[in-house]
Amino acid sequence: MTRSSVHPIDPDTSFDGGDLHCGNGLLLLIRRHIDPLSQGQCLEIIASDPTVDEELRSWCRLTKNELISVLELENKRKSFLVSKGAYVPTTKRTEPEHNLEITLPAVKAVNIPEQLPQPGPAPELGLIPVMGIGSWPRPPWMMRTLSDYLSGRLSREDFDNTADDAVRLCVDAQLASGVDVVSDGEQRRDNYASFVGNILDNCQLVPLTDLLPMVEHPEEFEKELDSLDVPADKVRHPVVFGPLGRSASLLKRDLDLVKSIVSDKPIKLALPGPYLLTRMMWMDCIVNKVYATREELAKDIVRVLREEIHYLLADGASIIQLDEPVLSEVVYSNNGGPKNKRSFMCGALSERKESEQELAFATELINSTVAGIPPERTGLHICRGNWTTDESVALSGSYEPLLPVLQSVKVGHLFLEYCTERAGSLKLLSKIPDNIKVGVGMVNPKSPQVESVEEILARAKEALKYLAKDKLMLVPDCGFATFADNPVCNADNARTKLKNMVEAAEVLRND
Fold it and tell me: What's the rounded Cα separation, in Å, for the pair 67 and 59?
């Protein structure tokens, strides 16, 4: 990086950030302008805040972008030239495209419906239903489309039109396998939870590296980012910049599309649970917080989830499943004690209190979210993380420490990981309340080995020692592609695993 009187190359685009600094909005603007650029193209950033100089260098180092040069301008303003990726000197000079308007996302006024619709009719699940948990491997062309959309190179309309085709293929694959309950496959999501950051009002998805200037201790936070087993600039995280609202549905388009294909089967849709979203969005390390406490944030998270659930059930969804895998982190990580550093398991960045307090808080949030909703239309999924095929690094332990939650949540269905020795004994199923149906993990999405019908039958018959026949559901341990760019299973294996569960269920029904 050089300081000179002229940049060595003209920028491909430029904007003036005024007196914004990296911690209060400048990085959101930088991300908006640099994402659509190609590798090697250059962005000029004009800023007057004195902290930008140092913070921008840290940001470039973390994101692998390059700060090429800095110019001193009038009125204590500076011009920073940043290359997307490594800078390659060239004699080519282009006419810069200047955009001097500050275009931070406007904080939207939150509109709260006066009355929520009641659940509408929907097909019932039947005896020993077979279904997926949620996610399905995205085709390569869907991955490229998702990347282009998140980087600002593709409009929402074009993205949705392409994603519709991916959802259709996912539904066809499930129907071909013979499942009893169909899902959308989460094709529009970069991962199963953080996608809400691009839809909820006053929330935005940003790469983890962009959080660096917003935290109280950036040096410590940078070390934590460096310790991740995935590049921090590739992981996008929802950041709240105003009161949360829901002016657009999270899943209505997917529900409508699946309904247009499937008319006689129940549809299950998965939403990130309220405790997970609170752990993701409440970042105690950030300096400028919209909410004073995580309890205040959680209250609004519960509100927007309740709105979404009511409208989806009114539109014909049979079950809404809340995903709360981070509950496993509460009891298994760091021996269940208070966190001494942040956890990135399932994107849960915030520090936490003692396990007992966290479980009580999570139970309260889940029950507040489903209050007044028929239990048979709700579900809760808890696993131990699904980001790697390496079983040795995944969390391990029985559901026993989570029994206070499992016995207290007011949902009608539980979806539990059991196709691994890490999950402990099936005997614990006898302690689940009799009014709850249990989806017991029969196939492991992290394993390339396709479980045979005989293996599935053996596991299901073991589960039936502790569950009544009308309380058993057959499911995978988790989704087949929880994170879009890191599927743990290919589509062919996923289809065969589901098909073998369907055959096993038919034997059990007739037994």
Answer: 10
